[in-house]
Structure formats: C-alpha cells, structure tokens
Amino acid sequence: MSVYNQPRKRVIQFIILGMVMLIVVRLFFLQVIEKKYSKLADANAVLRKVVYPSRGIIFDRKNRSILSNDAMYDLVVTPIAAKNIDTGYLCQILQIDKEEFKRRIATAIIKNGSRRVSVFASLLPPEMFGRLQESMYMFQPGFDLVQRQIRSYPFSAAANILGYIGEVSPQMLVKPAYSAYNQGDYLGMTGLERAYESVLMGQRGIQYLVKDNLNRPQGSYEKGEFDTAAIAGKNLRLSLDVDLQVLGEHLMRNKIGSIVAIDPQTGGLLAMVSAPTYDPNLLTGSYRARNFSRLFVDTTKPLFNRAIQAGYPPGSSMKPLTALIALDEGVITPAFGFPCRGAYVNCGRPIACTHNTPGHAANLRLAIANSCNAYFVHLYRLEVDAPKWGGVKKGHQKWHDYISSFGLGHRLGVDIPGESGGKAIDTIGMNKLYNGQWNSCSELYVGMGQGQVVATPLQMANAMCIIANRGSYFLPHFVSSIDGDESDILKKYKEKHTVAHVADTSYRSVIYGMQDVVESGTGRIAQIEGVIVCGKTGTAENNAVVDGKLVKLKNHSVFVAFAPRDNPKIAIAVIVENAGFGATYAAPIASLIMEKYLHDTISVKRKPMMKTLLEYNTLDPIVREKSKLDSLNGATAKMTSDQILKLYFRD
Amino acid sequence: MINRRQIKLTEGIDWPIMGLYFALVFVGLLSIFAAEYREGDNIWNDIIHLNKNYARQLMWLGISGVLATIIWLTDSKFFTATANLLYAGGILLLLLVLGIGKDVKGSHSWLVIGGFQFQPAELTKLCTNLALAKYLSSLETDFTKLRPRLIAAALALVPCGIIILQDETGLALVYFSFFLVMYREGLPGLLLIIAFSGIVLVLSALLVDKNVLFIIFSVITALVIYFSRREIRRHRSRLALILGIWAFCSVFVMFIVPMAFTKVLKDYQVRRIEVMLGKENDPKATYNTRQSMIAIGSGGIFGKGYLKGTQTRYDFVPEQSTDFIFCTVGEDFGFLGTLIFVGLYVGLLLRIIFVAERQRSTFSRVYAYGVASIIFFHMAINISMTIGLAPVIGIPLPLVSYGGSSLMTFTMLIFIMLRLDADRQMVLR
C-alpha cells in the first residue's frame, strides 16, 4: 500500500516549496523592494511618537466620576540637542544644582541614548510648570514639555477601594506577566486600579512624524498610513454610592474601624470605609513619593484596608448564624428556651450574660433580642453533640461546613486584591489545638462569635445579605459593568449562590428576632422612621499581646443589620475598634448610613446624634499623638463637626 | 547487539537532521538574546538567576537535551506499544486543564506546576501523532474505506476541539496538519482541494463585495465554457457540471455566508473574525502585524547586523521572543538572513520527508510525515503572520520561539523520529 501512494510525496514537497516560495517573494517585497519600512525605522528621518492612551474612568452608581484623569507635565530632554542653553537658569527654575543637572543628562544618555527623548523631571508641580512654560523657548529644542495624565479623585474619597497607580518596577519587568509594559509605564498597584488593570490600561498607539533637519516634526508620515491610534482604557461603573461613602468616612473620623454596605439583591458594594483613611489625591502628582512614605509609616496604618484585610471576632453578630444552624439541624425549634440565670455554667467555668432576669431567653426570638450568651453557646453544644453525628468531631465539622457556606473562614473573592479569609476553626484545627482531646465545651465561645472564629467586616456584611435574602447571596463586588467590554470578567459576580438548604421558616424566626433587637432590644438606637430594620449588636472582646503578656483590650463595637425587612435594599456591618458597646457607636453609624441610602436624606431629628458621633474620638491618645494623619488628611480632617453637619442639614 | 550499542551510542543517528535541529535552536537562542539584551546587562547574573527569557530558554534546552537522551536510549517498540495509552493520557490532561487550568494571555490552556507554566496542548501534538501512526499502521486498518478515514479524522479533531474550548485556537488549528499525513496515506486528493476551495470561498466572501464576486465567478465560468466549448459539445453533462459549480459558488457567497454571519454566529464572534481578517480596522489587531512588518522590512537586504536592530530591541514589536521572534532575524540579518533561515526549515522538512520515505514500517513513515506536517504548519503560519500574509494566531516558530512546552515538544517529536529511523530495519506496528 505504501508504494501505491508514493507519488504523493511529490505533491507534499510541492505544497511545502510553494508555500515557502510565497513567503520568500513576500520577504523580497518587504525587505528589498519596499523602502517605506526602512525609513520608518530610521530615527533620523521619521520621528516615532508613542501616544499614551487615557486610563479608564471610574463612575459610581449615579454616574458621578470618582476617579478620573488630570493633565500634568513632564520635562523631557533629547541630550544631543540640549546644547547652548542657559543651564544655570534652568537649574534655578527646577531647584536643582549643576551637578544634579549633569547627572540627569548622563542617566538619560545611558538609559535611552543621546538621540532619544528621556524624562528629565517628571510631574512638575504647578508653580514650576508655570515658570518653565514662560521661558520654554530658551531651552528648546533640547528640552520640551510633554503632557501626561495623572489620576485625580474629585471626591477625595474611597482611597482604599480605588487604589493607586505606580511606576512598573524593574523586578516586575523581568516577569513574563508584565511583558506588555515598558520602563516608565504606570500600572495599578492596589484596589480597583490593580484588579481591573487589564481593562483600565487601554493600548498605546504610535504616530510617525516626518522630521526636518533640525529635528522638528513636520506632519505625519505617508499620510498616517502606519499610525496606530491609542485606545483609551475602558470605564468602570461601580455599585458604590459616593454620597454614602463620604458620609461613612465622615462618621468614622477619629475612629479606627470599618463600614461595609452591600445591596443584598445584587451583591454590589454600596460603601466600604476603612478608617482612618486618607485623601487619595495625595498619591498622585508631584509629592506622591513623600506622601506615600508618610502614609506607609503612619501608626494608624491608613493604607491597610480594614474592611477586607482586618479580622475581628464577630461577637454577638454571629448569634443569628448559630441560631440558623441549630434550627436547620433540627436540634431546636423557634420555641426553644433556655433557663439562663445570668451565666452559662454547664461547662464548669461560668460564661457571663448581660441579663439575669428569668425568661429573657424563653424562646429564640427573645434570646436574639436580648443577646443571651448562655443560649447561643448552648445551641452550639446542642448542634455539635447531636446524637446523629456520633461524636463531637463530626458534629463540629458539620458546624464548620455551615459556617463556611455562610462565607466565613475563607476569602469571598471581592474584586479588589488583598482580601483576607478570616478564621473559622474546623475539626483538624481543633485536633491540633487540643492534641485531639476536646469536646463541645472546649471552644463553645464560637457560638457567640468569640474565640476561634474571626471575620472581616466584608464577611459580616455578606452574612447579613444571606439572612436578608433568606439563604442566597451574590459575591460582593464593586464593578457592576464595564463600558464596551464583552469578556466574562464580571460573570462570577452575576451568579446567585444558594447557601446550604436552610428552611425559610428558620430564617423567619431569626429575622423576627433581629427586628426585635432594633424595636425593643439592644439596638433601639438604630431605628429608622418608616422602615423595618433588622439588626444585631455585638460587643466583641479582644486581646493583644503587650510586652509578652496577654492584655484584654477595650471591646470592639459591632453592629450588623439589613433593611427593610421585606424586600431588603441594604445590608451593613460596622466595626469601631476598641470603642465599647455595639449599641453606642456602631449601631447609630449603621443606622445613619441606611437612612441616607433608603431615604436619600437624614431626618433633622437625628442631627444631635450625628454631631455626637462626629465628635466621638476613640483613638488611643498615644496613637493619635504619633499619627501624622491630621496634616495629611486634607479635605475632611480639617473640617469641624459643624462644618460637616452643614453638608447634610440645611438650617 | 547490546554491547555494540554501548560502544557506539550515536550509531544510526541521522546527522543532517541533528545538524539542522541544532542550527535552528542556536538561531533561536541568538534571537531571543537579541530581543532582550540591553547594553549594560550583566549576562552571567541574568543567566544564573533565570531573569531573562534567553536564560530560561537555555534551561529548557538543557531539559530537552535530557529528554532527547532518554528517548534515544529507549527501545523504539516502546513508542508503538504505548501510543494509544499516551493519546488517552494526553486527552485526559487536556480535559484536566479545562477544569483546573490557569488563564494566561487570554487562553485557558496552562497548567501551573511549582511556579512553571506548562501548556499540555503542545504535548498532545506528540500523542496524537503517535496514535495516528499506530492506527494507520494497524493491519486491520484499510484506509481506502470510509470508516477508518473517519476514525483517523476523529483522532486529530478530538484534541483540536478540546483546545478550541480552552480558547487557544492557534494551537488547535495545528491539528489540521494531520490531514496532510492522511493524504499521503491515501485520503483522496479531491478532499484536500475541496477543503482548500471552501476556505478560499469563505474568505473571499468575507473580504470581497459579494456582487463583485458574483461578476468574477460569472466571468470565470464564461471563460471556462468558452475554452472548453469543444469538450462540452461532446459531453453535454459537462456544461451542467460547470453551471452547477457556478450556481453553488454564487449562492454560497451571496446568501449562505452572510446568513451564517448574521443568524448563526454571535455578534462578538463576527467581530473577532472580521478583525482577524483585517476587515475591521481595529488598531489593536493591526498594531502587531504593522510593527512586525516595519521591523522585518527595515532589515533591508543585508540586515542591520546582530544586536543592531532598533525595532526589535526597543519593544516596538510585541511578543518578540515568542510569536514574533522572526522579526529579530528579519531586522538583524536582512533578506539574505531570512532566506538562509527559511532555507534551514526547508532543508529540515525535505530531509524528514526523505527519512519518512525510507522507512519500512508504516508506523515510522506516518509518524515522520506527522512531524514534517506539524513543523511545516507552525513555520508557515508563524512566518506568514509576521509578514502580513496570515491573521495573527499565536503559534510559536518551532525550535526558535521562546517557550519550554514548545521546545520540549518539538525536541521529543524529532528525537522519537530519529530513534524510529535508527531502528528502521525492524518492522514496527
């Protein structure tokens, strides 16, 4: 058979040679006949100008641009043409000495050669630019001013969400992932700028200009046949409400902590405050480096996004979840009561409870409203010790499965980088911690959100979404759409996740309990006129190791809530570090934000409360002394509480 | 026998292919180096720390050398015995990538193992080639029948389909090169001609106005009828055939293709195809080709000299050490350089075909033709896209482009062939 087809060898050889001939003819045309290409590559004849695209703009949910572009100028030099000028005067304007001048010229020659354009001084401050522009004719053609875009933040808000851009570093450039960048390019370093870098960056273009003998551009080469237009980056549209964000940042001033507000129906983040924050405009423009190092070393860590990176014990805000697990596993019914006398004593060492009146935990609804510690640690034990598991190890693992389906103990996957996963101990962790010898008493605190369970504010707000939606959620995210984008980059945020299989009736009893918290329980301060608010206060105990000793610190004030009860529009978590009761600080802050979002305004009745909140100062005096934030914070830090109030109430 | 092999390890090796292999790898290293090296770089430091692609390529070459040695020392029966197993393994690997793969540069086709990225779609070319050789050399396979032809086509198209799902269309297309092998083994030539004409028809329908096409078809048909009028007078059926082809082409171009584009394909798919054909003037799509044509064209007849290129060394050409490595050759060495360079490939391909034809066993012959077809397809498409003859689909230049998966796969392809060739006195199946 092989002999039969042997002539086909000739055909295949012919195909190969034919294709190669085609290639060779084309190469001959490109390389030998056509002269346009070699001229294009000749730097002396044709000037190649890189056209930088404008970076994508970021809009909030009401289409206000919260991150846009501003023009600044670089002074660039072509060393070979920079002769016979008044260097002394130029140095004077730039405030450098002659040594520095020579050094910069030498660097430019080493980097790019003497015929190519290099940056001499980047991002000139406005006053310097003004003086230079007036006398530019004296330094041309060797020097020139080149416009460059910088990022600007019109609302001076949402610094940690939006992130900042920075110059690509030599370490990055050697990695294949950054092959599209050149030295001197800027790219997103943190926040949305980084997460959506590929969308925001756009694509560089190239323009070819014919030059005359004095190196001056004389119009486009071959009528622009070879030019490539720059493609602007795509714009992002966020679910964020910048009014809400600014209000949150105002309310959190002089406090450490965080606010996360989510639209439960879409998973879109409405606000994410991490306090203390900073004016994002500090990290653009001429003084970026100086400001960055000051923010970086600041004792209050303003660059740290507490809303997604800090883990807190959820405290009593965890109790609704404990209740849902117990209801779903059938170890209790909503009518289940626990005879709490002010402490839980079934495990030896008593666990104190704020109430000691009999009947304050007579059923689930009451127990949630009164935040009975004994009730919920008991629920945890009932659940893990349920006979059907045949052992606490399996029971605890089941508990852990529930907790992680509620989004705790692992990263949720929000669309900004750096998220932390928090902690929710599983059976393997318990075995390690207790050398395999443990029972339901060992870590019963997890039932009330203390001990081996740690959550980020984002996770707490997300858990509220799950309760608000009665068992489903969308991954929390900022970007709701990207202009002109067809990729499936946002697909995972449009998917509805259903949690476990907890019954609707279980949710109902927990939600009614949370309604009671606000209507008659610990969180009455969070009431909003005309809206049924469901919430839960939390007062999270926390410790720190100081000088080698475990010291108990002042409690974190925690409040989680959603509203309205039916058809929920906002779910929120507020944490004020080391402030005290949840009801005193976190609850009113959450309430004001929900009111602003639901009613678009804050009722005048609440002005005194807001004033008190604005003036609360929970910062440790020593920390405050050391922090330089007041001088850095610009826009809001210098305002008095009355000035801020004027923004919200017309007198 | 065993003793003899120990005495002379290199016995039976085909030196021309070895020489061409090393020449191409060497040119590849030089070009990757030229694309990346900047004055003042500390070369030794970059090599030791694997900072640059040329350093990493050296490492991959070392690994490829080890693989080649292992293959050379393996009994050639091993490859026939495990061909089907390797194919099944390759398909499983491809499916695995669909599940747990990582997105790199917009395609979901990479596995990440301990910091190294690896693209199984490269490796499965080898598996498919072995499986196809095994199937066609089997005594039960009568390749003049329809069923074996369909099975052989499926062997090539299954991995192709999975790779399309991974969004790596370029590498998927390579699998069509196996039809060249099947043609050599008896697939009717008419099929190749029809497939080729089909592609030309679709492309022309997209690129040229349909009314103009209709006129062109009509003129051609009229000319054909005029020149074969005597023939037609003798056989009336010829006229019907010619008119039938004319009618089919016209309907196809004027109605079927536009309808497929508006009704069947989705909007973004249509745009992608149009951009690929250069019909829509998308700067993003034309940028790469334009820059690479400038780089190659500026090389002139004699080139600018090694390391003297301005286009490839200042990052004007994208992907210049992988898909657009040919630009460096074109710019630094000019038309003479590219002529010699393309000559190396032609030499390699013709030598492989020569080697293929001297095999006694069908397995070895089919395998060797497979190697030639894959290399030919890669080379032709890659060079064509850098000079604007083909749309930009990212497939590497064999043995030259930077990339571990690609270099290792081509090394293994070639060295298995060399091993089979050394044992050509045995009849394998």
From TrEMBL, chain A:
Gene Ontology terms, MF aspect: penicillin binding; peptidoglycan L,D-transpeptidase activity
The Penicillin-binding protein transpeptidase domain, residue ranges: 257-595
A Pfam family the protein falls into: PBP_dimer
PANTHER family named among the record's database cross-references: PEPTIDOGLYCAN D,D-TRANSPEPTIDASE, PEPTIDOGLYCAN D,D-TRANSPEPTIDASE MRDA
Keywords carried by this UniProt record: Carboxypeptidase, Cell membrane, Cell shape, Cell wall biogenesis/degradation, Hydrolase, Membrane, Peptidoglycan synthesis, Protease, Transmembrane, Transmembrane helix
Membrane topology: Single-pass membrane protein
Residue span(s) of domain Penicillin-binding protein dimerisation: 51-218
GO biological process, one term: peptidoglycan biosynthetic process
GO cellular component labels: plasma membrane
Organism the protein comes from: Chitinophaga oryziterrae
Annotated localization: Cell membrane; Membrane
Membrane-crossing residue ranges in chain numbering: 12-33
Source organism, top-level taxon: Bacteria
Keyword Cell wall biogenesis/degradation set for record: yes
Coiled coil: none
Main location: membrane
Name listed for the protein in its UniProt record: Penicillin-binding protein 2
From TrEMBL, chain B:
Coiled coil start-end: none
PANTHER family hit by this protein: CELL CYCLE PROTEIN (PTHR30474), PEPTIDOGLYCAN GLYCOSYLTRANSFERASE MRDB (PTHR30474:SF1)
Organism for this UniProt entry: Chitinophaga oryziterrae
GO annotation terms (biological process): cell division; regulation of cell shape
Lipid bilayer topology: Multi-pass membrane protein
Top-level taxon of origin: Bacteria
Name under which the protein is recorded: Cell wall polymerase
GO cellular component terms, semicolon-separated: cell division site; plasma membrane
Keywords assigned: Cell shape, Membrane, Transmembrane, Transmembrane helix
Pfam families for the chain: FTSW_RODA_SPOVE
NCBIfam families assigned to the protein according to its UniProt record, in alphabetical order: RodA_shape
GO-annotated molecular function: lipid-linked peptidoglycan transporter activity
Compartments in which it is found: Membrane
Membrane spanning stretches: 12-34, 54-73, 85-101, 146-165, 186-206, 212-228, 240-261, 333-354, 366-393, 399-420
